[in-house]
Amino acid sequence: MGKSYQEAKGEVQEMIDICDFATGLSRQLYGLSMHSERPAHRMLEQWHPLGIVGIISAFNFPVAVWSWNALIALVCGNCCIWKPSEKTPLSAIACQKILAEVLKKNHLPEGISSLVNGYADTGQKISNDKRIALVSATGSTRMGKEVAKAVSSRLGKYLLELGGNNAIIITQNADLSIAIPTVVFGAVGTAGQRCTTTRRLIVHQSMIDKVIEGLKKAYAQLKIGNPLDEKNHMGPLIDQDAVSKYLSAIEKCKKEGGNLILEGGKLDIPGSYVSPSIAMTEPHFEIVREETFAPILYIMSYADLHQAIQIQNSVNQGLSSSIISNNMRETELFLSAKGSDCGIANVNIGTSGAEIGGAFGGEKETGGGRESGSDAWKAYMRRQTVTINYSDEIPLAQGVEFNV
Ligand code: NAD
């Protein structure tokens, strides 16, 4: 999909890491045991596979997102059917072939994980198919709302990983030698096409000038071009449509009163290459509240940390967030219940580049799903509560008498 070679290798490493994680997890699908209120009874929870898991994935992580879902779903005992993005069918075929070899070597049926390349209508068929117990969909909020509607109309289960509008707060106690590279990687990595891309920068008013100066210097060093050339930091956008959306976001930003500190645009080379933008904006701008899947960074200033957190939480999306500060009072407020409302909250690292060991996902219009590490496996199984009576009596719960 055009991400830089380094980032692409990272994505494949993520797939390898999740294989290791899933292998260990397969021995740790633990249930709880609890004490029964009745004599000579015991209670426990056990977890069973759901059956078939449908995976609908986005173009921007063409292999990792599938692996987060499929490998966990498989060790939980499910079968999977994967519909990748219509924009990245070949990496899906490559993954399917690698998996087929592994299954063959281990004498497992190839059909436990299937691939179906197709467009949105194929995704809709998956959403509407009663045989598919769980639909795990990654993509835009628009798509997620359609999937949720279709799956819930048949009372199926869904797991949604949707759009983000992620912010970094830079306080007056930030170490700028950490802040600047963190922001640059977050804003231009994968050409701004990560769900966790840093889109908003909320900077303490005393730091604005220094931050802008640091970003200008860093952006001047960015190399944009063929992603297979390891010297390049940024490859192209996914297609010409993405370029048009980027250019109209720049125009909309200017129209709303944004001040373009760095005005990017289409590069004069073949392909969908663009240069990144940075704009001084206000939190209420419509364009700032949208997810534009391109390298455009909106800077806003704040006076008080409570105000910064309010700005950060004021958008509809709730995926990833960060604070850059060496002050414990600030970082702890950010992590408290009065702090970030996102599924991911980081301190002194950026919004993107999550590790697979944690549960990944976001709140609000990001969809509320959790994938990958921690106990995210529970979404791929059904919980069964078991009560066993080993006495020769039949006492009822809550002391109910029913003598016949
Ligand atoms: P998209 O919504 O256009 O497409 C995603 C997938 O959904 C594709 O496979 C597509 O064919 C399918 N699809 C589209 N409409 C559908 C429908 N009505 N029913 C069923 N399937 C349908 O998204 P995209 O442009 O490929 O990816 C970018 C978006 O994905 C961004 O919003 C990004 O933030 C999001 N994303 C989120 C995460 C996350 O983990 N939260 C990860 C990666 C990408």
TrEMBL record:
Matches recorded under PROSITE patterns: ALDEHYDE_DEHYDR_GLU
Keywords: NAD, Oxidoreductase
Residue span, Aldehyde dehydrogenase domain: 1-386
Gene3D superfamilies associated with the record: Aldehyde Dehydrogenase, Chain A, domain 1, Aldehyde Dehydrogenase, Chain A, domain 2
Active-site feature positions: E161
Claim: NAD is one of the keywords in the record: yes
Enzyme Commission numbers on file: 1.2.1.3
InterPro entries assigned: Ald_DH/histidinol_DH (IPR016161), Ald_DH_C (IPR016163), Ald_DH_CS_GLU (IPR029510), Ald_DH_N (IPR016162), Aldehyde_DH_dom (IPR015590), ALDH7A1-like (IPR044638)
UniProt GO molecular function: aldehyde dehydrogenase (NAD+) activity
Entry annotated with the keyword Oxidoreductase: yes
Alphabetical list of Pfam families matching this protein: Aldedh
Family as reported in the entry's similarity comment: Belongs to the aldehyde dehydrogenase family.
Subunit structure comment from the entry: Homotetramer.
Name this protein carries in UniProt: aldehyde dehydrogenase (NAD(+))
Gene source species: Elysia marginata
Lineage per the UniProt record: Eukaryota, Metazoa, Spiralia, Lophotrochozoa, Mollusca
